[in-house]
Amino acid sequence: MPERSTTLPDDLRADVQTLWDYHDMHDELRPADVGIGLGSHDLGVATFTAELFHAGMFPLIVFTGANAPTTVERFPRGEAVHYREHALELGVPDDAILVEPEARNTGDNITLTRALLESRGIEVKSVILISRPYQQRRAYATCKKLWPEVDVICASRPLPLDKYIESIGDVDRVINMLVGDTQRITVYAERGFAIRQEVPKSVADGYARLVQAGFIKRIL
Predict the structure, then answer these.
(1) Could you read off the pLDDT of 64-87 as tens digits, one per residue?
(2) What is the pTM of this model?
(3) CA 59 from chain center: how many Å?
(4) How far apart, in whole angstroms, are the C-alpha atoms of residue 4 and residue 114?
(5) Sheet (strand 97-100) strand order
(6) Is there a contact between 49 and 85 (Cβ–Cβ < 8 Å)?
(7) Which of 7, 44, 87, 115 could disulfide-link to 50, CB 3.0 to 4.6 Å?
(8) What is the pLDDT of residues 86-139, one digit of tens each?
(9) Helix (H/G/I), strand (E/B), else coil: 34
């Protein structure tokens, strides 16, 4: 298998950075009732969730996620299960973690986590959604559609674009995921899965150029 590149090509940088900045909600972190780690291929989500727990940002974690074609090889027992194990290795107490192992999309992440917390009699007024950096806006829009009464804060590991690509180890994968998530902002709102979000012209133009350049693996 050829080695994957971690170098962002200069001719793509401006458009990739535009999409990257758009998906960052730039929320100011403040304490919340629960931290919800959204399952994905990115183990950094679990790392940052554990860091926020240790910083006192929330007393309880829910890791949510089953598997997807992009994660089954890395996390064969499920995203949430592996996230929990990683958090335990980072010193989070077992009794501070709940696992929701069935979610297969962001809508499931929200609805099944909400149901799990309600089944435990845990009252939730505020949540911090911890996700991949480029999933923040979609996670926010989905949560506000499906759980409108809760106060939502979005968070991701505070890495600049190049460092994030290096952490994932595959620039092609990151660009394809960015493009896919950008498309979903509009499509999922149209389908009723999420609230509508404004898409600035610079973002729409950058998205179109990246699609034209062939980054279409994650578009619907």
Answers:
(1) 999 877 777 888 888 999 999 999
(2) 0.92
(3) 20
(4) 38
(5) 97-100, 61-64, 34-38, 126-130, 151-155
(6) no
(7) 87
(8) 999 999 999 999 999 999 999 999 999 999 999 999 999 999 999 999 999 999
(9) strand
